[in-house]
Design goal:
This protein is an alpha/beta fold. The chain has seven helices and 23 strands. The strands form seven sheets. The protein has a five-stranded parallel β-sheet with strand order 5-2-1-9-20, with helices on one face. A five-stranded parallel β-sheet has the order 11-18-12-13-14. Helix 4 links the parallel strand 12 and strand 13. Helix 1 runs parallel beside helix 6. The longest helix is centred in the C-terminal third of the chain and has 18 residues. The protein is elongated and about 65 Å long. The two termini are 31 Å apart.
Length: 402
């Protein structure tokens, strides 16, 4: 419903300079105007388009990196470089690692999740140094140093698409370099490739993997002892190189509720942190099982609308209703995908052309257009193309990982 309140001033503190944090910042500026004072707190001084970093080891272009102080200055907001270690909701302030404190009227936690390596001696993509490790692996494979790579999904939760991208781009790079005889496998708890996107797109990805000679091992679970369990049987991973994704856990901020056992922040459909007044959370830090940039942006939009309404903005409140969008890098043309849902047009869920605009990994309502329109970056995609298709297909609850 629309909230036609009288505008009032307030101080909103956003913790985190990633997708959810910047989407919330931009949405607040777009909806709430200048009467809401906003401070962005981040332990990093720049935003990195992390979904695009998967292409960097393969020489397919660098991910965008934008200084956060430049963004906040453009938007007329404040930037604080620091790490939030605790929240005192009674005093309405956050504590920083350097011992200082910052007061707030409303707090939005968008720190992202913490990642750790699930297997010893594996390349855990997304952790520090993993891009260089992938490049070194490719160099060695080109020199016939190694005959096998196994790509392992450590869990069904999180976001598995980067693992498929790494496998497909590795296969393409080896083919381009005329390297033969390297066995590539992808091991996942999923019963079929990228099952979240539904049968049609899963079949498309399965065909891409088969054409690239990547073996898919589904309904399989790997553990730290370098083994794989499938249907009660156990075998060794047995490859020269293991590439995986991080195991994720919540931010671990004192004073903020956390779910067991992984410590994610419990929130409602508007991002309100359960048990705390005037505290919201969005993005990978919250207890929604799928961790993905587009979903983080959608969560941040729901939060920003609710916060702006509290300060008098006339806005139609919309709870978080996940729409899963994805762009899969194959090393060739990207594949754009959406999740399937009953009653959806069967010709829409997957395509070889963009299904949203701008055609970016982060399908955020405010952040994606902002990044593409930045004049100082020299990037601008202009208006959507003629015949552009943009439909919303919700992620069905039955498809979510348990």
């Amino acid at each position: 419903m629309t909230q036609p309140n009288t505008p009032s001033s307030g101080h909103v503190v956003i913790v985190g300079g990633g997708v959810a944090g910047l989407e919330a910042l931009l949405a607040l500026r777009a909806i709430g105007g200048d009467h809401i004072a906003v401070t962005l707190v981040s332990q990093d001084d720049r935003f990195v388009d992390r979904p695009m970093t998967v292409a960097e080891p393969f020489g397919l272009g660098p991910a965008a990196r934008v200084l956060l102080p430049h963004i906040t200055a453009e938007l007329g907001t404040e930037f604080v470089h620091g790490t939030v270690t605790e929240v005192d909701p009674a005093e309405r302030r956050v504590g920083l690692a350097d011992g200082s404190h910052l007061a707030f009227d409303t707090l939005i936690i968008a720190t992202g999740a913490r990642g750790r390596a699930p297997f010893p001696d594996a390349i855990t993509f997304g952790l520090k140094g993993s891009g260089a490790a992938i490049r070194e692996m490719l160099d060695r494979l080109r020199s016939s140093d190694g005959r096998g790579v196994v790509f392992v999904a450590p869990t069904m939760t999180g976001w598995l698409l980067p693992l498929y991208e790494l496998a497909l781009m590795t296969a393409r790079e080896l083919a381009r370099s005329n390297v033969n005889g390297v066995r590539l496998r992808l091991i996942s708890p999923e019963d079929r490739p990228l099952a979240l996107f539904g049968d049609r797109d899963s079949q498309r990805i399965a065909r891409l993997m088969a054409a690239a000679e990547i073996e898919f091992v589904g309904a399989a679970f790997a553990d730290a002892d370098d083994g794989v369990s499938m249907n009660g049987a156990r075998s060794e991973m047995g490859s020269d190189y293991v590439v995986t994704l991080p195991l994720l856990s919540g931010p671990g901020i004192a004073g903020v509720p956390a779910t067991h056992p992984h410590g994610f922040i419990p929130v409602d459909e508007y991002g309100r942190v359960r048990g705390l007044a005037d505290v919201y959370a969005a993005g990978d830090a919250v207890d929604f099982p799928v961790k993905q940039g587009g979903l983080a942006a959608q969560q941040a939009d729901a939060v920003a609308e609710h916060v702006a309404a509290r300060y008098g903005a006339a806005v139609e409140l919309a709870p978080f209703r996940p729409v899963l969008r994805g762009m899969l890098f194959t090393g060739g043309e990207p594949v754009y995908m959406r999740s399937g849902a009953p009653g959806a047009d069967p010709e829409v869920p997957g395509a070889w052309c963009p299904l949203w605009w701008p055609p970016t990994k982060i399908a955020g309502r405010h952040l994606a257009p902002y990044l593409f329109a930045r004049e100082d970056e020299g990037v601008g995609f202009g208006s959507p193309p003629v015949g552009f298709i943009d439909v919303d297909i919700p992620l069905a609850a039955m498809t979510l990982p348990a």
